Amino acid sequence: MDYEALRVPLHYDLRPLAALLAGKGIPHQISEWQGAQVIWVVDAASAELVEALHRRLESGDIEVVQAEPQAQAPQASRATAFLPVTLFLLAASIVGAGITTFSTEVMSWLSFYRIIEVDEGYMISTAPGEYWRLFTPVFLHYGLLHLVFNGLWTWELGRRIEFQQGSVALLLLTVLMGVISNLAQVWFTPGQLFGGMSGVIYGYLGYMVVWQRFRPVAAFALPQGIVIFMLAWLLICMLGFTELVGLGSIANAAHLGGLIAGVVLALATLLGLRLTGR
Protein backbone atom coordinates (compact mmCIF):
# COMPACT_ATOMS: atom_id res chain seq x y z
CA MET A 1 0.00 0.00 0.00
CA ASP A 2 2.04 2.94 -1.30
CA TYR A 3 -0.51 5.71 -1.94
CA GLU A 4 -2.10 7.93 0.68
CA ALA A 5 -5.71 8.31 -0.45
CA LEU A 6 -7.34 10.14 2.44
CA ARG A 7 -6.36 11.70 5.77
CA VAL A 8 -9.00 12.52 8.41
CA PRO A 9 -8.95 13.38 12.15
CA LEU A 10 -8.76 10.58 14.71
CA HIS A 11 -12.34 11.14 15.85
CA TYR A 12 -13.74 10.71 12.32
CA ASP A 13 -15.76 7.50 11.79
CA LEU A 14 -14.28 5.74 8.76
CA ARG A 15 -16.38 2.57 9.11
CA PRO A 16 -18.98 3.51 6.47
CA LEU A 17 -16.28 4.38 3.92
CA ALA A 18 -14.30 1.24 4.78
CA ALA A 19 -17.40 -0.90 4.29
CA LEU A 20 -18.08 0.80 0.95
CA LEU A 21 -14.53 0.21 -0.24
CA ALA A 22 -14.69 -3.43 0.87
CA GLY A 23 -17.97 -3.92 -0.94
CA LYS A 24 -16.44 -2.54 -4.14
CA GLY A 25 -13.37 -4.74 -3.76
CA ILE A 26 -10.89 -1.86 -3.43
CA PRO A 27 -7.77 -3.02 -1.53
CA HIS A 28 -6.94 -0.58 1.22
CA GLN A 29 -5.40 -0.24 4.66
CA ILE A 30 -6.28 2.18 7.45
CA SER A 31 -3.66 3.23 9.96
CA GLU A 32 -3.05 5.93 12.53
CA TRP A 33 -0.13 8.10 11.43
CA GLN A 34 1.08 11.54 12.48
CA GLY A 35 -1.98 12.23 14.61
CA ALA A 36 -4.56 11.32 11.97
CA GLN A 37 -6.28 8.36 10.32
CA VAL A 38 -4.88 7.56 6.89
CA ILE A 39 -6.30 5.32 4.16
CA TRP A 40 -3.58 3.73 2.03
CA VAL A 41 -4.24 2.15 -1.39
CA VAL A 42 -2.19 0.43 -4.07
CA ASP A 43 -2.22 3.05 -6.85
CA ALA A 44 -3.19 6.58 -7.84
CA ALA A 45 -6.43 5.48 -9.53
CA SER A 46 -7.63 3.83 -6.31
CA ALA A 47 -6.70 6.97 -4.37
CA GLU A 48 -8.88 9.11 -6.66
CA LEU A 49 -11.76 6.66 -6.23
CA VAL A 50 -11.48 6.79 -2.44
CA GLU A 51 -11.58 10.59 -2.50
CA ALA A 52 -14.63 10.56 -4.79
CA LEU A 53 -16.52 8.07 -2.63
CA HIS A 54 -15.66 10.06 0.48
CA ARG A 55 -17.07 13.24 -1.05
CA ARG A 56 -20.28 11.44 -2.05
CA LEU A 57 -20.70 10.02 1.46
CA GLU A 58 -20.17 13.46 2.97
CA SER A 59 -22.70 15.07 0.62
CA GLY A 60 -25.28 12.33 1.18
CA ASP A 61 -25.32 11.18 -2.46
CA ILE A 62 -24.74 7.60 -1.32
CA GLU A 63 -25.49 5.87 1.94
CA VAL A 64 -24.13 2.70 3.44
CA VAL A 65 -27.06 0.80 4.92
CA GLN A 66 -25.08 -1.98 6.56
CA ALA A 67 -21.33 -2.06 7.02
CA GLU A 68 -19.80 -5.40 6.15
CA PRO A 69 -16.17 -5.29 7.20
CA GLN A 70 -15.97 -9.06 6.90
CA ALA A 71 -16.22 -8.68 3.13
CA GLN A 72 -12.72 -7.22 3.08
CA ALA A 73 -9.93 -9.73 2.70
CA PRO A 74 -7.97 -9.89 5.94
CA GLN A 75 -4.53 -8.33 5.75
CA ALA A 76 -1.49 -9.65 7.62
CA SER A 77 -0.03 -7.32 10.20
CA ARG A 78 3.69 -6.72 10.55
CA ALA A 79 3.62 -8.88 13.66
CA THR A 80 2.04 -11.94 12.02
CA ALA A 81 3.17 -11.73 8.40
CA PHE A 82 5.57 -14.44 7.24
CA LEU A 83 8.94 -12.76 6.83
CA PRO A 84 11.36 -15.41 5.50
CA VAL A 85 14.27 -13.12 4.59
CA THR A 86 14.20 -11.27 7.91
CA LEU A 87 14.08 -14.55 9.81
CA PHE A 88 16.91 -15.99 7.71
CA LEU A 89 19.10 -12.95 8.40
CA LEU A 90 18.51 -13.34 12.13
CA ALA A 91 19.25 -17.07 12.06
CA ALA A 92 22.38 -16.58 9.92
CA SER A 93 23.64 -13.90 12.32
CA ILE A 94 23.20 -16.26 15.28
CA VAL A 95 25.12 -18.97 13.43
CA GLY A 96 27.78 -16.44 12.46
CA ALA A 97 28.22 -15.42 16.10
CA GLY A 98 28.78 -19.05 17.00
CA ILE A 99 31.31 -19.44 14.20
CA THR A 100 33.40 -16.48 15.35
CA THR A 101 33.45 -18.00 18.83
CA PHE A 102 34.19 -21.64 18.08
CA SER A 103 35.58 -22.10 14.55
CA THR A 104 38.35 -20.00 13.04
CA GLU A 105 38.43 -22.36 10.06
CA VAL A 106 34.80 -21.72 9.08
CA MET A 107 35.17 -18.04 9.92
CA SER A 108 38.02 -17.91 7.41
CA TRP A 109 35.56 -18.88 4.66
CA LEU A 110 33.08 -16.16 5.56
CA SER A 111 35.35 -13.22 6.41
CA PHE A 112 36.47 -10.71 3.80
CA TYR A 113 40.06 -11.89 4.22
CA ARG A 114 41.28 -15.47 4.33
CA ILE A 115 42.60 -16.29 7.82
CA ILE A 116 45.79 -18.34 7.99
CA GLU A 117 46.82 -19.78 11.34
CA VAL A 118 50.51 -19.60 12.27
CA ASP A 119 52.46 -20.61 15.34
CA GLU A 120 52.04 -17.32 17.17
CA GLY A 121 48.49 -16.56 16.10
CA TYR A 122 47.14 -15.87 12.64
CA MET A 123 47.70 -13.78 9.55
CA ILE A 124 45.25 -12.65 6.89
CA SER A 125 45.46 -12.45 3.12
CA THR A 126 43.23 -11.50 0.22
CA ALA A 127 41.32 -14.23 -1.63
CA PRO A 128 40.98 -13.31 -5.32
CA GLY A 129 38.01 -14.86 -7.08
CA GLU A 130 36.12 -15.75 -3.89
CA TYR A 131 33.40 -13.18 -4.47
CA TRP A 132 31.04 -14.36 -1.74
CA ARG A 133 33.43 -12.69 0.72
CA LEU A 134 32.14 -9.32 -0.48
CA PHE A 135 28.89 -10.05 1.39
CA THR A 136 29.26 -12.84 3.96
CA PRO A 137 31.08 -10.78 6.65
CA VAL A 138 27.65 -9.34 7.52
CA PHE A 139 26.83 -12.61 9.31
CA LEU A 140 29.91 -12.59 11.56
CA HIS A 141 29.24 -11.14 15.01
CA TYR A 142 31.76 -10.72 17.79
CA GLY A 143 30.16 -11.19 21.18
CA LEU A 144 26.64 -11.32 22.60
CA LEU A 145 26.14 -7.54 22.77
CA HIS A 146 27.09 -7.17 19.10
CA LEU A 147 24.66 -9.94 18.11
CA VAL A 148 21.74 -8.70 20.21
CA PHE A 149 22.10 -5.08 19.11
CA ASN A 150 22.22 -5.95 15.42
CA GLY A 151 19.55 -8.62 15.74
CA LEU A 152 17.04 -6.23 17.28
CA TRP A 153 17.57 -3.61 14.56
CA THR A 154 17.50 -6.23 11.80
CA TRP A 155 14.11 -7.34 13.06
CA GLU A 156 12.74 -3.85 13.62
CA LEU A 157 13.82 -2.36 10.27
CA GLY A 158 14.18 -5.37 7.97
CA ARG A 159 10.69 -6.71 8.65
CA ARG A 160 9.15 -3.36 7.77
CA ILE A 161 10.77 -3.40 4.33
CA GLU A 162 9.85 -7.04 3.75
CA PHE A 163 6.26 -6.45 4.87
CA GLN A 164 5.86 -3.39 2.65
CA GLN A 165 7.87 -4.29 -0.46
CA GLY A 166 8.28 -8.07 -0.33
CA SER A 167 10.96 -10.65 0.34
CA VAL A 168 12.75 -10.28 -2.99
CA ALA A 169 13.15 -6.52 -2.49
CA LEU A 170 14.57 -6.99 1.01
CA LEU A 171 16.98 -9.68 -0.21
CA LEU A 172 18.30 -7.52 -3.06
CA LEU A 173 18.64 -4.47 -0.83
CA THR A 174 20.45 -6.47 1.84
CA VAL A 175 22.97 -7.90 -0.63
CA LEU A 176 23.68 -4.53 -2.24
CA MET A 177 23.95 -2.70 1.08
CA GLY A 178 26.10 -5.47 2.53
CA VAL A 179 28.57 -5.44 -0.35
CA ILE A 180 28.80 -1.63 -0.43
CA SER A 181 29.25 -1.27 3.33
CA ASN A 182 31.89 -4.04 3.42
CA LEU A 183 33.86 -2.45 0.58
CA ALA A 184 33.68 0.91 2.35
CA GLN A 185 35.18 -0.64 5.47
CA VAL A 186 37.94 -2.37 3.50
CA TRP A 187 38.78 0.87 1.72
CA PHE A 188 38.96 2.82 4.97
CA THR A 189 40.78 0.22 7.12
CA PRO A 190 42.48 -2.29 4.80
CA GLY A 191 43.91 -5.43 6.34
CA GLN A 192 41.59 -5.61 9.37
CA LEU A 193 38.98 -8.22 10.19
CA PHE A 194 35.42 -6.95 10.64
CA GLY A 195 31.87 -8.21 10.55
CA GLY A 196 28.25 -7.64 11.46
CA MET A 197 24.91 -6.48 10.05
CA SER A 198 25.27 -2.90 11.24
CA GLY A 199 26.27 -1.52 7.84
CA VAL A 200 23.17 -3.11 6.32
CA ILE A 201 21.04 -1.83 9.21
CA TYR A 202 22.13 1.74 8.53
CA GLY A 203 21.32 1.07 4.88
CA TYR A 204 17.79 0.08 5.90
CA LEU A 205 17.52 3.29 7.91
CA GLY A 206 18.64 5.53 5.04
CA TYR A 207 16.36 3.72 2.60
CA MET A 208 13.27 4.04 4.79
CA VAL A 209 13.83 7.68 5.76
CA VAL A 210 14.24 8.78 2.13
CA TRP A 211 11.30 6.67 0.95
CA GLN A 212 9.11 8.11 3.71
CA ARG A 213 10.13 11.63 2.75
CA PHE A 214 8.94 11.36 -0.84
CA ARG A 215 6.38 8.52 -0.81
CA PRO A 216 5.01 7.96 2.71
CA VAL A 217 3.80 4.48 3.68
CA ALA A 218 2.59 3.31 7.06
CA ALA A 219 5.24 0.60 7.45
CA PHE A 220 8.12 3.08 7.07
CA ALA A 221 6.80 5.62 9.59
CA LEU A 222 9.63 5.33 12.11
CA PRO A 223 9.36 7.28 15.37
CA GLN A 224 11.57 10.33 15.14
CA GLY A 225 13.35 9.27 18.30
CA ILE A 226 14.64 6.09 16.63
CA VAL A 227 16.07 8.00 13.67
CA ILE A 228 17.74 10.55 15.97
CA PHE A 229 19.16 7.81 18.21
CA MET A 230 20.69 5.86 15.32
CA LEU A 231 22.24 8.91 13.71
CA ALA A 232 23.55 10.06 17.09
CA TRP A 233 25.04 6.61 17.71
CA LEU A 234 26.73 6.77 14.31
CA LEU A 235 28.29 10.12 15.25
CA ILE A 236 29.35 8.86 18.69
CA CYS A 237 31.05 5.84 17.15
CA MET A 238 32.82 7.93 14.51
CA LEU A 239 34.18 10.26 17.20
CA GLY A 240 35.76 7.29 18.98
CA PHE A 241 33.81 7.35 22.25
CA THR A 242 33.14 3.60 22.11
CA GLU A 243 36.85 2.88 22.26
CA LEU A 244 37.30 5.29 25.18
CA VAL A 245 34.70 3.41 27.26
CA GLY A 246 36.12 -0.01 26.39
CA LEU A 247 33.56 -1.20 23.83
CA GLY A 248 36.26 -1.71 21.20
CA SER A 249 36.61 -0.40 17.67
CA ILE A 250 33.54 0.02 15.49
CA ALA A 251 33.29 -0.47 11.72
CA ASN A 252 32.38 3.18 11.19
CA ALA A 253 33.09 3.18 7.46
CA ALA A 254 30.67 0.27 7.03
CA HIS A 255 27.99 2.19 8.93
CA LEU A 256 28.44 5.32 6.86
CA GLY A 257 28.79 3.39 3.60
CA GLY A 258 25.60 1.46 4.34
CA LEU A 259 23.70 4.64 5.18
CA ILE A 260 24.77 6.30 1.93
CA ALA A 261 23.93 3.13 -0.01
CA GLY A 262 20.42 3.08 1.46
CA VAL A 263 19.83 6.73 0.55
CA VAL A 264 21.06 6.25 -3.02
CA LEU A 265 19.07 3.02 -3.53
CA ALA A 266 15.89 4.68 -2.29
CA LEU A 267 16.36 7.68 -4.58
CA ALA A 268 17.13 5.44 -7.57
CA THR A 269 14.09 3.24 -6.92
CA LEU A 270 11.76 6.20 -6.47
CA LEU A 271 13.09 7.82 -9.64
CA GLY A 272 12.53 4.58 -11.55
CA LEU A 273 8.95 4.34 -10.29
CA ARG A 274 8.30 7.94 -11.26
CA LEU A 275 9.71 7.49 -14.76
CA THR A 276 7.53 4.41 -15.31
CA GLY A 277 4.43 6.17 -13.96
CA ARG A 278 4.00 3.88 -10.96
Question: In short, what is this structure?
Answer:
56% of the residues lie in helices and 10% in strands.
Write the topology of this structure:
Layout: E1 3-8, H1 15-23, E2 28-33, E3 36-41, H2 44-59, H3 84-102, H4 104-110, E4 114-118, E5 121-125, H5 144-165, H6 167-188, H7 198-214, H8 224-238, H9 241-244, H10 252-275
Antiparallel strand pairs: 1-3, 2-3, 4-5
User: Ends: how far apart?
Assistant: 12 Å
* Low-pLDDT sequence parts: 66-80
Per DSSP E runs of 2 or more residues, the count of β-strands stands at 5
Helix content: 55-70%
**Class of the largest domain, according to the CATH hierarchy?**
Mainly Alpha
β content, as a range? Answer: 5-15%
Features:
10% strand; Rhomboid-like fold; 2 domains; mainly alpha; two-stranded antiparallel sheet
Structural account:
The protein has 278 residues and is mainly alpha-helical. It has two domains: 3-71, 2-Layer Sandwich (Alpha-Beta Plaits); 84-275, Up-down Bundle (Rhomboid-like fold). The protein has ten helices and five strands, in the order E-H-E-E-H-H-H-E-E-H-H-H-H-H-H. It has helices spanning 15-23, 44-59, 84-102, 104-110, 144-165, 167-188, 198-214, 224-238, 241-244, 252-275, and strands at 3-8, 28-33, 36-41, 114-118, 121-125. The strands form two sheets. A three-stranded antiparallel beta sheet has the order 1-3-2. The chain has a two-stranded antiparallel sheet with strand order 4-5. A hairpin with a 2-residue loop joins strand 2 (28-33) and strand 3. Helix 5 packs across helix 6 (167-188) and helix 6 (167-188) packs across helix 7 (198-214). The longest helix has 24 residues, at 252-275. The radius of gyration is 23 Å and the shape is elongated. The chain starts with a strand and ends with a helix.
